[in-house]
Amino acid sequence: MAENRDSQFQSLLADAQEDPDVLGVFVFGSRSREGFVDERSDYDVGVVVADRDGALAGFDERWPYAHGAGVEIASSTLSELRKHGEYGSPTEWARYQYSHAALLIDKSGEVENVLRGKERVPEGVRAEVVEDALGGYVNSTYRSLRNRMIGVEQGARLDAAESLPHALTAIFAMEARVRPFNKYLEWELRLHPLVDRAWAADTLLPRLGAVLAGEPDEQHALFRDVERVAREHQFGSAIDEWKPDLEWLRGEAEYRG
What is the rounded distance in angstroms from the CA atom of residue 73 to the CA atom of residue 64? Predict the structure, then answer.
């Protein structure tokens, strides 16, 4: 099985190298990150073809996509690749898949430029991404803590869980980085650490686990760190929208009600 998979992958590379319409080939997913490959791992391969009529259809006829295949091929034209994963598009969720992609063929140099650009949050949208994420994070944290105060434990835990994707999006975007998929969060924090000490893997990961377990003290602690870093990056206005409850969210005062 593994031999067939490897052989098919090598055949794909050879075909792509010979096809003048193929501009680039890259591997993403588990095989582009050390430590995630096992005997069941497939190849997630991106193939980029020229924006010429019939080029993509011709490639897809030879190498059709098949979900669950040993070699899963995501083909696109160069212009389609530029648009995929863009902020505000339906594929925004997929942007991180291009981070750390292993580029194997790039006949023009354009594919590398596109892939590396997708590893970052563009400056033109960074403020909106951060502010939206901070709003979602504080909102869910607020609801979680209030639910716990009135004894709605299930709601408190679910809201705590919902707060974390927003928190991670904001934490990474404040450094202009794309939030990793959950599977790769620890890998990203350890091999490509964020700048602030609060986001070190050995600090942040246990705290996220404690928030998921419903520990309000850790929710307050996470809020204090998020607030501090947000203010350092000039996003304090997104936090100030939650006055007069900031001291309560920090765990420094009783709820105002």
Answer: 7
> In this structure, which topology does domain 2-118 adopt according to CATH?
Beta Polymerase; domain 2 (3.30.460)
Structural domain boundaries of the chain?
A: 2-118, 123-250
Strand order in the sheet with 102-106: 71-77, 43-49, 22-28, 102-106
Residues of the chain with pLDDT below 50 are none
Only one residue has tokens 């700048």, namely 195
223-236 confidence digits (pLDDT tens) = 999 999 999 999 99
Q: How many CB atoms lie within 10 A of CB 224?
A: 15
What does the alpha-carbon distance between residue 216 and residue 24 come to, in Å, rounded to a whole number?
49
Cβ contact 220:249 at 8 Å:
yes
Quick count: other Cβ atoms within 10 Å of Cβ 39?
A: 7
**pTM of this prediction?**
0.93
Q: How far from 143 is each of 5, 42, 135, 159, 173, CA to CA, in Å?
A: 48, 41, 12, 6, 23
